[in-house]
């Protein structure tokens, strides 16, 4: 009891029936930040604990993909990527894609996969997917470093002032990916086969983003379809930084992307909140 | 000191029971196939997309618990006791009504304590503490006491999945009573564990009560209820049937069972 005397005044908790429109409770998430960091540390520890394998896998995965696509699309089929070596073109787009698809995959499973602790204790369920996102950001950082190594080895792509825009793009990408992940995570509670569907959707999504091919090989009149995919502009903005390719992204487009990402995030979060209340009853 | 620790107002809880094996709306496949099934089924009696039945676990439950009170929840299986405790623990939400918690709650439920089986006992102690919003330093203060009480010894650093059920319960109970803030909700777990541990648990709970904690206990052992609780609430098929001094409620309940 003594420990708690020093605490601030406890604000009474009111438990009510769930409503379909509940926004995330950020104050509560902040209160549970200990839990968030605990989940984050544990996830990172788990992955790096198998030190040699864990750390290497983060490096190997994008590299192996790069080699495969380089051989097939770069050497054999020779997809035209202009002045840019195919492997660099691919890798600079792929690191972004990998982050997005990992966040979506992990978040899709965050409610259903953690049903064990969810039915046993209370904590803001949003902490689960948010902790995965934070952990995957570490991976993203590492793969960008690897990309940098390749870029600097090549010599034609030095670090420029453009890199100042990198944090902004990372933030927008994180918010967008997390939002999509939360939405899929919510859907998985209702539609159990969502997990399989997610892999399938991600596969198609990857083909619909200019990662393995440059936008230029798509006929002009069809390029609009690529732009419906928010990842297209994100990937191209990243490539603008890494490969000195393309035109400066317009500030107003960036602001719009940020706003859209935030809207998507809140939609995902509301859907997630609605389903987090159902998951303990459904199982 | 507040006059109220827990306020339960007109709480109802309804569950939908699905007869299909799939999730709530079935699967996407089922939803997409619905038009086809309808076409095929026209004119014949067909089963619905997902047959469901409603089961009302709690009906219009209202009561108040004052700080420092010890309340026993008794009733047959399926009466709604565990459901009520789950709602109070915020694991599930009521369908109607409102509950206000004026103090911090810790729960020890029949399903477990939120122990993550992959983690060690030590990690789980800290994890549980963080669920309660405690700081690492606060948990550290109590850590040795928790381990000592649980008699888990050197196994504190082994993953919980390797624990025997006895060890698990002892650690879970130890964590719950030592990290308890103001309100402790316990469901049935006292019945597991040997006589010696049960004796220790009772003593510990009484100690908690003496220092001002509030306890709500679900137990089938009327011995435990009578021993620890001053008040008892009898739930029968989701309805609050009786609420009063533990001795008399337990007596009425036992008469009813015969």
Terminal CA distance of chain A reads 36 Å
Termini distance of chain B?
42 Å
Which two chains form the greatest contact, residue counts included?
A-B, 37 and 57 residues
Main β sheet profile of chain B: 6 strands, mixed
Helix and strand content put the structural class of chain A at: mainly alpha
> Helix and strand succession of chain A?
HEHHHHHHHHHHH
The shape of chain A is: globular
How do the strands line up in the largest sheet of chain B?
Answer: 5-6-7-3-8-9
Strand content of chain B: 25-35%
Overview of this structure, please?
The complex is a heterodimer of chains A (283) and B (258). Chain A is built from 12 helices and 1 strand, in the order αβααααααααααα. Chain A is mainly α and 283 residues long. Chain B has helices at residues 28-41, 81-88, 121-131, 136-150, 165-178, 195-210, 222-228, 246-257, and strands at residues 6-18, 52-65, 70-74, 96-101, 105-108, 183-187, 214-218, 231-236, 239-245. The longest helix of chain B has 16 residues, at 195-210. In chain B, a hairpin with a 2-residue loop joins strand 8 (231-236) and strand 9. In chain B, helix 3 crosses helix 4 (136-150) and helix 4 (136-150) crosses helix 5 (165-178). In chain B, strands 5-6-7-3-8-9 form a 6-stranded mixed sheet, with helices on both faces. The model of chain B is unreliable at 43-50 (pLDDT under 50). Chain B starts with 5 loop residues before the first strand and ends with a helix. Classes of the chains: A mainly alpha (283), B alpha/beta (258). At the A-B interface, strand 1, helix 3, helix 6 and helix 12 of A face helix 1, helix 2, strand 4, helix 3 and helix 4 of B. Strand 1 of chain A pairs antiparallel with strand 4 of chain B, so a sheet runs across the interface.
């Amino acid at each position: 009891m003594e420990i708690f005397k020093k605490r601030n005044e406890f604000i009474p908790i009111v438990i009510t029936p769930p409503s379909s429109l509940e926004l995330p409770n950020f104050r509560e998430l902040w209160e549970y930040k200990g839990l968030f960091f605990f989940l984050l540390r544990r996830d990172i520890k788990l992955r790096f604990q198998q030190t040699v394998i864990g750390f290497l896998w983060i490096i190997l995965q994008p590299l192996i993909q790069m080699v495969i696509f380089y051989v097939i699309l770069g050497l054999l089929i020779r997809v035209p990527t202009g002045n840019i070596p195919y492997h660099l073109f691919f890798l600079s787009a792929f690191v972004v894609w990998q982050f997005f698809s990992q966040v979506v995959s992990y978040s899709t499973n965050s409610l259903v996969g953690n049903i064990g602790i969810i039915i046993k204790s209370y904590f803001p369920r949003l902490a689960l997917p948010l902790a995965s996102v934070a952990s995957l950001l570490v991976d993203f950082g590492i793969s960008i470093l690897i990309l940098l190594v390749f870029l600097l080895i090549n010599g034609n792509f030095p670090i420029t002032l453009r890199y100042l825009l990198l944090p902004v793009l990372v933030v927008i990408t994180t918010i967008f990916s997390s939002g999509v992940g939360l939405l899929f995570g919510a859907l998985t509670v209702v539609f159990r086969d969502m997990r399989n569907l997610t892999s399938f959707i991600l596969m198609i999504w990857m083909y619909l983003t200019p990662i393995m091919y440059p936008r230029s090989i798509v006929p002009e009149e069809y390029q609009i379809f690529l732009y419906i995919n928010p990842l297209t502009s994100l990937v191209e903005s990243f490539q603008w930084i890494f490969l000195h390719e393309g035109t400066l992204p317009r500030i107003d487009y960036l602001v719009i992307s940020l706003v859209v990402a935030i809207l998507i995030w809140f939609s995902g979060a509301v859907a997630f909140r609605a389903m987090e209340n159902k998951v303990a009853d459904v199982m | 000191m507040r006059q109220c620790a827990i306020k339960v107002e007109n709480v109802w809880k309804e569950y939908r029971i699905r007869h299909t094996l799939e999730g709530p709306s079935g699967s996407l496949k089922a939803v997409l196939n619905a038009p086809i099934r309808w076409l095929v089924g026209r004119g014949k009696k067909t089963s619905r997309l997902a047959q469901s039945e409603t089961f009302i676990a709690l009906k219009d439950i209202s009561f108040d618990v004052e700080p420092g009170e010890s309340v026993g929840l008794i009733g047959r299986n399926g009466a709604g006791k565990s459901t009520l405790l789950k709602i109070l623990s915020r694991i599930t939400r009521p369908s109607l009504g409102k509950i206000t918690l004026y103090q911090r709650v810790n729960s020890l439920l029949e399903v477990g304590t939120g122990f993550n089986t992959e983690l060690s006992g030590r990690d789980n102690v800290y994890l549980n503490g963080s669920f309660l919003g405690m700081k690492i330093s606060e948990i550290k203060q109590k850590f040795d006491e928790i381990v000592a009480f649980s008699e888990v010894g050197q196994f504190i650093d082994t993953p919980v999945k390797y624990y025997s059920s006895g060890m698990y319960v002892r650690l879970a109970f130890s964590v719950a009573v030592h990290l308890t803030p103001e309100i402790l909700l316990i469901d049935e777990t006292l019945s597991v564990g040997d006589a010696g541990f049960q004796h220790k648990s009772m003593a510990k709970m009484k100690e908690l009560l003496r220092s001002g904690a509030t306890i709500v206990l679900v137990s089938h052992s009327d011995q435990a209820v009578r021993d620890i609780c001053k008040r008892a609430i009898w739930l029968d098929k989701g309805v609050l049937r009786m609420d009063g001094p533990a001795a008399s409620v337990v007596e009425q309940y036992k008469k009813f069972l015969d």
